[in-house]
Each structure stands twice: as C-alpha cells, then as structure tokens.
Amino acid sequence: MTTILVTGGTGTLGRLVTERLRTDGHEVRVLSRHSRPYAVDLREGGAGLDTALAGVDTVVHCATTQRGGDERSAANLVAAAKRAGVAHLVYISIVGVDRVPLGYYRSKLAVEKLVEESGLGWTVLRATQFHDLVVRVLRALARMPVLVLPAHASDQPVEVAEVADRLAGLAVGAPAGRVPDMGGPEVRTFASLARSYLDATGRRRAVVNVPLAGKTYRAFRAGGHLAPEHAVGKGTFEEYLAVRFGGGEGGRRE
C-alpha cells in the first residue's frame, strides 16, 4: 500500500484529493497548520514535518497562500522530503504562471522551479481557475450597485473535483515531469460569467466593462492564463452554479 502525504489536505482541492486517494485504498496523511496529528506550518518546517514524512512514498503539494511564503514552504518541504527518501513529489500549479506577471503567479513559478530542481522524482500539473474562485471574485464585485469588470478579458474555469481526480491519478503513477495543462471546457468572457452568476443568485446588477492598464491586465487580456488547447474539463460554470445556488444566493446549497 502506498503512503501519500497531502499538504493543504483540508483545503478546497486537497480535501478532495485526500478523499479520492483513500477511496482507492491508499494510506493518506493530511498535513496542514491545524490538522492533527500532522499539524505543521510549512513555512517553519521543523521536526513535525520530518515526522509527517517518515515512511511516505509520495507527496502531493496542494498547500498555498496568496499572503506570501509559498517559496519558503516549498523549500522546507523539499529538504524534508529528501531527508525522508520520498520518491515522488506532485505539485499543483496554475496555467499562465510563466506568462502573467502577477506576484502570486511568480511565486507559483518559483515553486515549480524548486520542485523541478529538487533531485526528487516530480510531476507538475497546471490548471485554470476553479469555479469557486470565480464565484468569490464575482460575489465581491457584486456588492456594488454596478458590477465593474475588466474589458476584453476571459476565463476558463474548471471543476475542482475533476482536477482532484487528475491529481490523485498522477500521485499513484510514476514521476512524469510537466504534464499537459488542464483547462475548463469553455473559454468565457468575464461578462458572460458574471451574468450567469447574477442569474443563478437572483441578483440584479448592471454589468460594465472597463479597460484597465498595466502588464498584468494586458497578459490576462491576451489569454496568458488560458489553455484552450487543453479544454479537457467537463463540468460547466452553469452546472456548478446550479448545484451551489439552487435556491439563489440566500438559499444556496454549500
């Protein structure tokens, strides 16, 4: 039986990866800051991390934060994984980290490099944005009477459960290096996604597209974060909305 450690195993993606692997009969350890018995802050490393990795064959690295520290966390994880003799390190990244000059994307790209140069067997999967992230952004924007969106920009949201399935499959396979990107089934304008969200939640807002400036906006407008040639996801944004907001925003089923 394979012993697999999932970092960030209580998060949106990590929780589903853990469920998939356990269903398939693997021993899975969940590592997060508050999940016992492997409650470890990766940014600090230490003896707790060594204990969590003892006897582990594969690590699936899902832990991440936009508040900074991903590179330090990855460096600590790689060092401890090498000490423990881990055979395979799997990392989930984001489509466009090498094309969009966003700080968080640059951090993810730096972690990719740490994984690739670790000396461990490794696999890196890049995915487009999850449906729930798009909803969080639109919910925040919809707090205003007018929903203002970046003009001429699109997205390609993917169902997180499908990414979890793919990641779990990679975890039980041999190290594969950089595997093909995973994108949602449709490239959609932000305006069309916003209107679907408003319809699903019963909100009424005017949608206004506003041109922005800067390198990051130009990269998003150019589709640097998209993978239309890898539109392998099946679940659409509307299907996700129907499940999550069957009764509107106030009566959503979480």
Automatic annotation (TrEMBL):
It comes from the Bacteria. This is NAD(P)H-binding protein. Residues 8-132 form the NAD(P)-binding domain. InterPro entries: Ergot_Alk_Oxidoreductase, NAD(P)-bd_dom, NAD(P)-bd_dom_sf. Signal peptide: none annotated.
